[in-house]
Each structure stands twice: as structure tokens, then as C-alpha cells.
Amino acid sequence: MEPRISLVTLGVGDLARARRFYEQGLGWTPSPGGSEQVAFYQLGGMALGLYGRTALAKDAHLPDAGDPARFGGITLAHNVRSKAEVDAVLALAERAGARILKPGQDVFWGGYSGYFADPDGHPWEVAWNPFFPLDEAGNLSLPTE
Asked: Phi first, then psi: what are they for 121, rounded to 5°?
């Protein structure tokens, strides 16, 4: 597994409010790679995602999002270059002591991903996203048009 965080996703209680904060309050420009349910912002060679807290917990196969002791409302993502690499990284993480939360699988947004929890319970998504390419150095690039 290359040492890289591609995407930090914040689970938010109100996506419209969160978008107003980042876009109107901070002046950030959303990527057209988002949708009604998720917003993305380019942060140098990585990105920030905003997604409903309950939906994010469900996607990661984590317990109820309403209990901060069970789900902190944030996931880290490690994007890779292929579906096979998703499975390989999940297997590596499991051998290293991670708990697999969700095995690699085709997902509704057109990619392939799975989740593991590190020994302290922090959820990591491992994803192949054909819409967010990685450059040679592993930097993620969101769509700009």
C-alpha cells in the first residue's frame, strides 16, 4: 500500500448547510464530480468530500451514525489504480491487523471500493474511482468540467 491519503470524507448532518459553509463562507469551488448527495473539493493533491453522516456510516458498514462513540463522522480514503489493487490493499490491511468493514465490491457511483478499520477503529475506504484519476505520484485529480 502506497503511503497516501487521497480523500478525507466528512459525514455531515446537513449537506446543504455544509456546502454553503465551504462554498460561500470559505470560497471553495466544488468539483462537478459531485452530485446532489455528495460534494468534493480539490485540496492540492488530495480532496475533501462532504456526504451525509448516516449515508457515510451505512456505506462503510458502521453502526448507527447518531452515536459519536460508535462512528466519528469521518473516513479516510486511499485511492488506487485498479479494482484488483483495492482487493490487494484490503488483504494487506487485514494481514496487518485491520478489521474488514466492507469487502471490495462494485458500488453505485461506478467504481469499486471496500473499507477496513485500523487497530484503533479509524475507517479507511480503499477505492478505485475511474472518475478521479491518480497521477504518477499518486495525487488525486477531481474533474474540473
From this structure: 90, 5
